[in-house]
Design a protein that fits this description.
972 residues, mainly beta, 13-stranded parallel β-sheet
């Protein structure tokens, strides 16, 4: 779908550094901004066919300030679609959209500031149609604003990001093309508007004949009563009776997962039937529709009885919305909209918003499809096919503002095979990649549009990365991967860990070299934020580029940082920002092959090895960068908490004239609790820079905002920068250390205490509230009710896990500090009292057949197995337990499916402490594996101390080879 009203200044040469935070603006009288940035909907035949028409705020009429273009992580414009948006900072300022098609509903993407505690704040905007007030549009920052490093936190500090959220509403009638819809500030909190998606919301879907309604099982509409049990009873009855389960119009509160199997759950449409909610005390539980988990599969946490026995089969979820209440990222929490394992199942026209992940699918599972859906505003991935997902697909789905990868496949311990991401539009992931496959075999990524990557990732990523993606498990990239007919727009960016740019399309052999065929065909890579294509880590082969258009890069066409074998046929390049085609320092391990005469605009001889990474130079004429005029850097100044009435040290904004003639400069101004001095004068010569020094002197406590404005009529002017700081009452608390990590602990036992010291660094006595912990943690403290200036107190924290796995919590110290509460992250790992010592440990083998490697025997999944070479007894498998440890029981398994007929295998057990000298643990004995008893054999013997445990197979009555799906070793 094309955006309407797009104007492109194709003849402009755009040059701007990544470090520039210049913000062109229009303000005062209403005006429509000139538009240069292409839209993800500008590419017919690619991406999702969406039901809405999108209009960017900067393309509309506005009396606010157009901010951007800016691609710098932590800058407000960088997360906007097209890297520009409009800020309404005063009462009465507005953005007014003129409809190009009828519409009765709208989704608005916006940002408002966080509060000083990091918990967000609420406001409203005035929604007007043709000048008349229609309703107050509710806005919030509760679901955004994350800080620090991965996996991030909600405490205001360094690296603020995830600024934007979305709200939707219906007008009450269908507006006509030409009608004007205005979003207007009522004063107070600044509102930044990114875009509006206008659509005709269809009438509600009628209840299917003969269906069961969740209301009939006690579900409560439009209230806060938990309806989880009612929904569960309804879907269980639907399965038993073979009937559709109906969700009527209304909003239902669910505090936990509804587990579905063999049932259709259908609503009146995602604008009408809405599921929401989160458990009020057990915060790892929230609304979600889940399939049953597969024991030993992708989900490794505790499986409750009603969640076991997966995968679920023959599930259909359609025509409703899941609107979660997730405001933080805790990776261990199962607070996803859709999850578990579902085979032969479909998700159709489901709206997923404000959950951790839209759909995190923990296989093994097969033939699962997500289609015609919207996934918005997640704290982590949009979709992740995790562990043994096969023959599955995401198609015609729109993803925006995911907190991590937009669409991902992760072959963790079990191969992902023959999956497809096709005809999707993935916009503005806040971290990592738009689309990625981590390992997998015969994967298809086709006909997608991806845009506006922010950091630590690219538009499309193919990699042997992340846990258990390797040949030991058979999960590495293998077979033929098809990456075809995709458009990558403003993709790639900076990685703040590696401190260099990431390509729009990139290939990474981090875990082991890539050895697969990857065919990149009929693809457009446009206006890349750094390089167009990148090879890094390992030796990557073989990537074949055919009919690829590369137009506009921030730096190079190719960024070669590892060995790679690649072919290029009809690859056309233009507007290469570095002026040089290739950056490579890897010598002869870079093996490119040019095929035919269609490779134009670049050459292999245009190669440089500088040892440094240049700032990008954006010269793509369809881009959204500053038009070679005034820029300012940074685009936001953030001041630390300051006592009311005192003045901060100065921070500096540098204004640069990138144009070809002098720029007139007006009177520089700041608003709010800020003051400035500058060196800009009345004119800034071409190529010159000046500085503005800003100080912060709060007049009241709490968050204090303002704006720096450098007026100019030159291109890029006026230059603006946001200003934010916190006014303090003289209380300033800090904690040391900032987080506690506890060593592995057996469930039901209590750790020794660790100490956190709380110090009042301010000038006034702090009033303290009740110190508390969450999760499996407890504390005692010496803090009392007040803490004098300069004084300290301590909190002693212990860890007493209640279940296995990673356990997290928070120590909270409330006070009258403007940044209250002071929080300290807590984490620990819990194990069972008698754990499986072999799971996940390294293995060796005498042989294996095809992909049935020995690592399958310790992956926790009874459906995968090791099989030795045939007709070649004896055969052995050895597991390294890591250190000499007591072993008194071994459990052996074959796949539990009845297709594995009863058989007996003769097995001897030996042990060693040095992998050289082995002694007998259990003599060769025939063990029976019978599907009626789960194909399991248990070996008990006197406890022995061994690091290496070896099983030697000398016979198998069911197959002429050694076979084993799980080797479990226990102390007792």
């Amino acid at each position: 779908m094309k955006k309407t009203g797009r104007l492109r200044a194709w003849t402009l040469a755009v040059i701007v550094a990544m470090t520039a935070g210049g913000q062109a603006s229009t303000s005062g009288t209403a005006a429509a901004a000139t538009t240069r940035a292409e839209s993800p909907f500008d590419f017919p035949g690619r991406g999702a066919t969406v039901p809405f028409t999108e209009i960017e705020a900067e393309d509309a009429v506005t009396t606010g300030q157009v901010i951007g273009s800016d691609r710098v992580y932590t800058h407000l414009p960088s997360e906007a679609s097209g890297r520009r948006a409009v800020t309404l900072s005063g009462s009465g300022q507005y953005v007014e959209f003129t409809l190009t098609k009828p519409a009765n509903g709208v989704t608005v993407r916006y940002s408002i500031p966080d509060n000083s505690a990091g918990t967000g704040q609420d406001t409203t905007a005035d929604l007007r149609v043709n000048g008349a007030h229609v309703k107050d549009l509710p806005l919030t920052s509760r679901y955004g604003w994350f800080y620090g490093g991965y996996p991030f936190n909600n405490t205001p500090g360094t690296n603020p990001h995830h600024f934007y959220d979305e709200t939707r509403t219906m007008f009450g009638s269908t507006l006509a093309a030409g009608d004007k819809v205005r979003i207007q500030s009522t004063g107070g909190i600044p509102i930044t508007v990114d875009l509006a998606d206008f659509e005709v919301v269809p009438n509600p879907v009628a209840r299917p004949a003969g269906s069961l309604s969740v209301d009939d099982f006690g579900a409560v509409r439009n209230g806060t009563t938990d309806s989880t049990a009612a929904f569960q009873a309804a879907v269980d009855a639907g399965k038993a009776q073979g009937k559709v389960v109906w969700i009527p119009e209304g909003t239902y509160t669910l505090w936990d997962h509804v587990v579905v199997d063999g049932v259709t759950l259908a609503g009146a449409g995602p604008w009408y039937s809405v599921l929401t909610g989160r458990h009020p005390t057990d915060r790892k539980r929230g609304v979600g529709i889940y399939g049953k988990y597969v024991t030993g599969g992708g989900y490794t946490g505790t499986i409750r009885p009603h969640e076991a026995g997966g995968p679920s089969r023959n599930v259909t979820l359609k025509d409703f919305a899941i609107m979660g209440e997730i405001t933080e990222r805790v990776d261990g929490d199962q607070v996803n909209a859709i999850g578990g394992a579902m085979t032969d199942s479909v998700v159709d026209n489901v709206w997923m918003q404000h959950t951790k992940v839209g759909a995190w699918m923990d296989g093994p599972m097969d033939n699962f499809v997500i289609k015609n859906s919207r996934i918005l505003d997640q704290t982590a991935d949009g979709v992740n096919f995790h562990t043994g997902v096969t023959n599955s697909r995401v198609t015609n789905t729109f993803v925006r503002n995911s907190g991590d990868d937009g669409l991902a496949m992760w072959a963790d311990r079990v191969p992902n095979v023959n999956n497809s991401f096709d005809h999707n539009t993935v916009v503005a992931p806040i971290l990592a990649n738009n689309i990625v496959t981590y390992g997998g075999k015969d994967i298809n990524i086709t006909d997608n549009v991806v845009s506006d990557t922010l950091t630590n990732g690219g538009g499309i990523h193919v990699a042997n990365r992340y846990s258990n993606v390797n040949s030991t498990y058979g999960t590495q990239l293998a077979g033929t991967h098809t990456v075809a007919r995709n458009t990558l727009l403003r993709a790639g960016n900076a990685d703040y860990n590696w401190v260099f740019g990431i390509g729009a399309m990139w290939f990474d052999g981090a875990n082991e070299p890539i050895n697969a065929t990857i065919n990149v065909t009929d693809t457009d890579i446009l206006d890349s934020s750094y390089a167009a294509v990148q090879f890094i880590q390992g030796n990557n082969k073989t990537v074949n580029f055919t009919n690829v258009k590369i137009d506009g890069t921030g730096t190079y066409m190719l960024q070669v940082q590892s060995g790679a074998t690649a072919s290029f046929t009809n690859v056309r390049a233009d507007h290469i920002g570095a002026g040089i085609s290739i950056h490579s320092c890897v010598g002869g391990s870079w093996v490119p092959q040019l095929i035919g005469t269609g490779n134009t605009g670049w050459s292999l001889t245009s190669t440089v090895c500088t040892g440094t990474w240049p700032a990008p130079n954006y010269i793509y004429p369809g881009g959204g960068a500053s038009p070679g005029g005034l820029t300012g850097s940074p685009g936001l100044l953030s001041f630390a908490a300051r006592q009311v009435g005192t003045t901060s040290p100065a921070q500096t904004v540098t204004v640069t004239n990138g144009g070809t003639s002098a720029a007139p400069i007006g009177s520089v101004t700041v608003t709010g609790d800020y003051a400035q001095t500058n060196t800009c004068g009345t004119s800034l010569a071409a190529g010159a820079s000046c500085t503005v020094s800003v100080t912060f002197r709060p007049t009241a406590t709490g968050t204090r905002t303002g704006t720096l404005t450098v007026p100019s009529t030159a291109p890029g002017g006026p230059v603006t920068a946001g200003l934010t700081g916190v006014g303090s009452n003289g209380v300033s608390l800090s904690a040391s250390p900032a987080g506690l990590s506890f060593a592995s602990r057996v469930v039901g036992t209590t750790s020794p205490a660790q100490t956190v010291t709380v110090t009042n660094n301010g000038t006034a006595t702090a009033d303290l509230g009740t110190v508390a912990t969450t999760g499996d943690f407890a504390q005692t403290n010496t803090c009392g009710t007040t803490l004098a200036a300069g004084a300290s107190c301590t909190a002693n924290v212990t860890f007493a896990p209640t279940t296995t796995g990673t356990r997290t919590g928070t120590l909270s110290v409330p006070s009258d500090d403007a940044n209250s509460p002071l929080t300290v992250g807590l984490s620990g790992t819990a194990t069972s009292a008698n754990p499986n010592l072999a799971q996940g440990r390294p293995t060796t083998e005498t042989s294996h057949t095809q992909t049935y490697v020995s690592g399958n025997a310790v992956d926790g999944n009874a459906n995968t197995y090791w099989e030795s070479a045939g007709n070649a007894f004896p055969q052995s498998i050895t597991v390294d337990l890591g250190q000499a440890t007591n072993v008194g029981r071994i459990v052996l398994k074959l796949p539990p499916a009845t297709a594995w007929a009863t058989r007996s295998q003769t097995i001897a057990v030996t042990g060693s402490t040095d992998n050289a000298t082995y002694t007998s643990v259990a003599a060769a004995t025939s063990y029976t594996f019978n599907p009626a008893t789960a194909n399991t054999a248990t070996l008990t013997f006197p406890t022995t101390s061994s690091r290496y445990v070896r099983l030697t197979f000398s016979a198998n009555t069911g197959w002429p080879a050694a076979q084993l799906s799980e080797l479990e070793a226990y102390a007792s």
